[in-house]
Structure formats: structure tokens, C-alpha cells
UniProtKB/TrEMBL annotation:
Homology family: Belongs to the SUA5 family.
Alphabetical UniProt keywords: ATP-binding, Cytoplasm, Nucleotide-binding, Nucleotidyltransferase, Transferase, tRNA processing
Enzyme category, top tier: transferase
Compartments, record wording: Cytoplasm
Gene3D superfamilies assigned to the protein according to its UniProt record, in alphabetical order: DHBP synthase, Threonylcarbamoyl-AMP synthase, C-terminal domain
PROSITE patterns: YRDC
This protein's name: Threonylcarbamoyl-AMP synthase
């Protein structure tokens, strides 16, 4: 399959390209496109056959539901009930990186919802994403635009790397602003529950409802019955090709431990990647060191996380060692992705 790639100038949007991509969606094809979180791989959310193509292109498990992306607040036809808390969250955070879980209507195919009676819905703030949805004339089901299990793409080059020849169209824009997938809140339960942390933090959500809580299994390794409520969170996600280890604890002890680990691998003729920060990057004398950004700007660390992991894939390192981050505010989302990337291989110091 030939994949058409168009890189858009956000100051002067190519309407023809957006209309062409919208037509691909409308006709049952697949389009990769930017959002403020990560790049998405979209199909007509109401077309069972089109949605199945997403699972094939990504190699995605069939029991992992998709999020439906919309361009306006008219969602009554997609759901049987919109609880008051959902309306308040929509008013405050849409458009933006927030997905709401609601009871689905019959118009949503079981393939899109992975057989569940609920569906995740969000309105992206990215202008290209919303204009594409409008051009398609249908809601767009879209997971991240990468091979399943790999770090999500925050730059168009990674969509091309993973999906060229597998889908009809790739729309490119700027690097994604948030860099981590949307926050997911289940509004079908009381109190509402965060099933995946993201750019809309628990602290922000509690400004709307103080009882909203995070699924306690999100930050832990799934063991026995202690598993995340969201089906997709049980799978291996965001993982680089090389094994990843996290060193967690006092920062000075973390630096010393990472240097010790790195030296041991170097003695075994292994190539080591180190994920550091602006404040610590100069304390590592061996290995390939990359800064995620400043510890004083956790949002920037989240924005850079997946691309740094992808960069280590490019370099073919044998092992990656990462510093940990404080699990407050957006740091919860960063550590959620980092832990899953590492398969919960954590060294405490």
C-alpha cells in the first residue's frame, strides 16, 4: 500500500490535504494525525470494518478498546447517558487531553468498544485533529499511531517509521504538546475513577469533584486480582527495544547507583543509554546520556519521554537506565508510562 504523507503548516493549513484525509476516513481508510497528546491512528468509529484495520495495522489486541475523538460537544448520539459530572468535566477540560468513559449507544460497534458497554470519548485541542474530524463528518476512533507496545509517537517521523505502507494517509504537524496519552476518567461509576493519568491531573480534576480518585492498580505491577480497571492498561506499552530499568530514591544515591550499574554493563561490553535530567546529566561520565529536561518542569519531561526512548532504539543500545520522578501532579502520568516501559523493573536506593 502506498502511504501519502503531507506535512502541514499550522499557520496556513492545507485545506485540500485535510479534506482528502477526511475522505479517506469517510471511505473506510486509515489516517495518522497529530493531537496534543500523541499522534493518533484514526478510522471511522462507526464503521466496524474500518476499525478492524486499526487493530491489524498496529498489531493491537482485540480486547483493547479505542477512544472516539469528536470535534464538538454533540455526543448524545454516541452515549445513552451523560452524567452531571461528565458535563462539568467537558465544560472545564474540553477540548483537551481528557477522555471520559460513558455508557455507549448502539451506534458504536463492538469492535470499537472491544465488546464493552462503555466507550471513551474525547475532544482534542489540536486544530489539525479537530479539522480532520470535521472533514471526515464522522467521529474518529484512534489509538496511538505506532506499532502496538512501542513508545507512542510524538513526532510525525515516528508514524512514518511504524506505519508507512500499512495505511493510506499520514498528516504531519508540530511535535505534540503534552507527549503522553490523555487522562481517562470513568464517569459510569460513583465517585468517578481515573483509569489512566495524563495531562489533566488528579489535582485539576478534584477542582470539579473532590471525590475523584485514581485506580490504585495503575502505578503497581499487575499481580493476581490486583489489575488496572482499564483493559488496555494490562498490556505491555511504551516499551523501547532494549530493556529499561528505573532507579528510584534519593537523587544523589540514584546517580551513584546508575553509575555503578552502567560500569558493570560496560565491563560486559554492553552499550548503555541513560535517561537523566538537566540537573544531573553532567554527573554521568559513561554511557550515552540524554536529558529529558529540567526536574523543575515535569511537563517538559513528559513531552520528551517517548522520543528519548525512541532515540535509544535508533542507537541500538543494549540497556537503558532511567532516573525516577516524584509521583505528584503530572509526575504521576510520567511515572505511570515510565514504569510500564520498564515492565516495572525498579531498583530502590
Amino acid at each position: 500500500m502506498e502511504t501519502k504523507v503531507v506535512i502541514l503548516d499550522l499557520d496556513n493549513l492545507d485545506r485540500t490535504a485535510i479534506e482528502d484525509a477526511g475522505k479517506v476516513i469517510r471511505n473506510g481508510g486509515l489516517v495518522a494525525f497529530p493531537t496534543e497528546t500523541v499522534y493518533g491512528l484514526g478510522a471511522n468509529a462507526l464503521d466496524d470494518i474500518a476499525v478492524k484495520k486499526i487493530f491489524l495495522a498496529k498489531g493491537r489486541p482485540q480486547d483493547n478498546p479505542l477512544i472516539v475523538h469528536i470535534a464538538d460537544f454533540n455526543i448524545e448520539y454516541l452515549t445513552t447517558e451523560i452524567p452531571e459530572i461528565a458535563k462539568r468535566l467537558m465544560e472545564k477540560f474540553w477540548p483537551g487531553p481528557l477522555t471520559l468513559i460513558l455508557k455507549k449507544s448502539q451506534i458504536i460497534p463492538d469492535t470499537t468498544s472491544a465488546g464493552l458497554n462503555t466507550i471513551g470519548i474525547r475532544m482534542p485541542s489540536n486544530i489539525v485533529a479537530r479539522e480532520l474530524i470535521k472533514a471526515a463528518g464522522v467521529p474518529i476512533a484512534a489509538p496511538s499511531a505506532n506499532v502496538s507496545g512501542r513508545p507512542s509517537p510524538t513526532e510525525v517521523s515516528r508514524c512514518i517509521e511504524d506505519l508507512e505502507g500499512k495505511i493510506e494517509y499520514i498528516l504531519g504537524g508540530e511535535k505534540c504538546d503534552v507527549g503522553l496519552e490523555s487522562t481517562i476518567v470513568d464517569c459510569t461509576v460513583e465517585p468517578p475513577c481515573v483509569l489512566r493519568p495524563g495531562g489533566i491531573t488528579l489535582e485539576m480534576l478534584r477542582e470539579v469533584n473532590s471525590e475523584i480518585y485514581i485506580d490504585p492498580a495503575i502505578m503497581k505491577k499487575p499481580v493476581g486480582d490486583f489489575k488496572p480497571k482499564a483493559p488496555g492498561m494490562k498490556y505491555r506499552h511504551y516499551a523501547p527495544k532494549a530493556p529499561l530499568k528505573i532507579v528510584q530514591g534519593d537523587l544523589q544515591k540514584t546517580i551513584a547507583k546508575i553509575n555503578e550499574i552502567v560500569q558493570n554493563y560496560i565491563d560486559e561490553n554492553k552499550t548503555v543509554g541513560i535517561m537523566a535530567t538537566d540537573e544531573t546529566v553532567n554527573f554521568y561520565k559513561n554511557g550515552i546520556v540524554r536529558s529529558l529536561g529540567s526536574r523543575n518542569d515535569i511537563s517538559n519531561i513528559g513531552k520528551n519521554l517517548f522520543e528519548v526512548l525512541r532515540g535509544f532504539d535508533d542507537l541500538g543500545v543494549d540497556i537503558i537506565i532511567s532516573e525516577a520522578f516524584e509521583e505528584i501532579d503530572f509526575g504521576v502520568a510520567v511515572m505511570n508510562r515510565l514504569k510500564k516501559s520498564a515492565g516495572y523493573d525498579i531498583i530502590n536506593v
